[in-house]
Write a structure and sequence with these properties.
The chain is an alpha+beta fold and 136 residues long. It has one helix and twelve strands; from the N terminus they run αββββββββββββ. The mean pLDDT is 81.
């Protein structure tokens, strides 16, 4: 009787240890967007030869929408994010272009509570370190 209870106890301890070990890194990618990035953002107005241009960004839990005054807005959906460091995020998204959904990776660096910039697929996209998005 003591042998059976010791075997059951040892089995319970081993399975508990295995369960905790496998779930340790399960939640690296999260769906949606982090609450620190949600809201309405815009860049400062840039004077052009044909008027001025202000880039806008709307971030919700389900989509990111970049809009310029001169063109159609770019809408990114199926968002997944991970945090890389202090106020640095990587976002994976899909964008519908010409009948196809293309996959993109964005790096977002939040400079302060109300300032950030976005790098899309390794290239600056509507913002840079000198032309930051500001919260509206």
């Amino acid at each position: 009787m003591k042998k059976i209870s010791l075997i059951l106890l040892a089995g319970a301890i081993l399975t508990t240890g295995v369960a905790t070990e496998t779930n340790a890194h399960a939640a690296k990618w999260h769906s949606g967007m982090p609450s620190a990035l949600k809201g309405k953002w815009k860049t400062r107005t840039i004077k052009r030869t044909i008027g001025s241009d202000t880039n806008r960004l709307l971030v919700t839990n389900k989509k990111m929408e970049f809009a310029t005054m001169m063109g159609m807005p770019d809408q990114f959906e199926n968002l997944k994010w991970s945090k890389n460091g202090k106020a640095t995020y990587t976002v994976k998204a899909r964008r519908f272009i010409d009948g196809f959904k293309r996959h993109h990776t964005m790096k977002i660096k939040k400079i302060s509570k109300n300032r950030m910039y976005v790098v899309l697929d390794g290239k600056k996209f509507l913002s840079s370190r000198s032309n930051l998005f500001a919260r509206i």
